Amino acid sequence: MRRIVILLMTAAAGALCTAFLNCGGPPKIEMNVVSYSDPDAELPTRVRFTTVELGMTGNPLLEKQLLAILRDSLVAHGHIYSPDSSEISIGLTGYIGPYQEYVPPRTISWPKLETSSTSLSGYVGTTRVSGNASTSKWTTQQLQVGGGVRTSYYRRIWVGAAGLLPNSDSVSLVWTGEAESFGSTGDLLIVAPYLLREIVSEFPHRSGRPAARRQAMTR
Hints:
Elements: H1 2-21, E1 28-37, E2 48-51, H2 60-76, E3 80-81, E4 88-103, E5 106-124, E6 127-145, E7 148-164, E8 171-183, H3 188-200, E9 212-216
Parallel strand pairs: 2-3, 2-4
Antiparallel strand pairs: 1-8, 1-9, 4-7, 5-6, 7-8
């Protein structure tokens, strides 16, 4: 009987881990990605670009690191980093901020073995005898798990590309893309490669994929 109880508890714990904690797999990042382009701009499929600092991220070193990640992602997608002969210049802004949310507890049914005992007595001939008889049955007990106040983070990266429009001598924005996500990671550099990779996949033209996306984060 003890073996059965242990097996049942192990199976229930495994189900709980899979349902609530995503045990056994890499963490996931969910995001929304959108992009917009100027219909008057003639952007080639492969773009010669350079990066510029906008000074709007709040931390100049963070901005430089984000630009380096963006540059590598653009090159990986076939674009050409050419500071001296660029067609467009690309800059970005990044933001991360905490917020708190109440997470209600979950109620689960947990197996429980209940044993009851009954006293018996009687006579065998003229001799009085007595004893106890026990019975066992499985029931379920309602348990509450989790709950409380959780701190999460809003993460957003915006990327803009500026260049010359046809028959114009002034520089204008020709493309923008942004990604936002919510999660427990409070370091923008950890999630930035995933956000920027998806933003770049929409440059210079939309990919046609849904805005809501989900990626596995490598450890």
